[in-house]
Amino acid sequence: MTSSKRILTVVGARPQFIKAAPLSKVLRARHTELLVHTGQHYDNGMSNVFFDELAIPAPDVNLGIGSGTHAEQLSAMLEPLERLMLEQRPDLILVYGDTNSTLAGALAAAKLNLPIAHVEAGLRSYNRAMPEEINRVLTDHVSRWLLCPTQEAVNNLAKEGIKEGVTVTGDIMVDAVLQNVDRARITSTVRAQCGLQPNQPYLLATIHRPANTDVPAHLTQIMQAFAALEYPVVFPVHPRTRKSLAALDLYTATHVRLIDPVGYLDMLALLDGAALVVTDSGGLQKEAYLLKRPCVTVRTETEWVETVSSGWNLLSEPTVESIRHAVQHMLTHVPAVHPDFYGDGTAAQQIVAALES
Ligand code: UD1
Ligand code: UDP
Question: DSSP assignment of 228-295, as one string?
Answer without folding.
Answer: HSSS-EEEEPPHHHHHHHHHHT----TTEEEE----HHHHHHHHHH-SEEEE--HHHHHHHHHTT--E
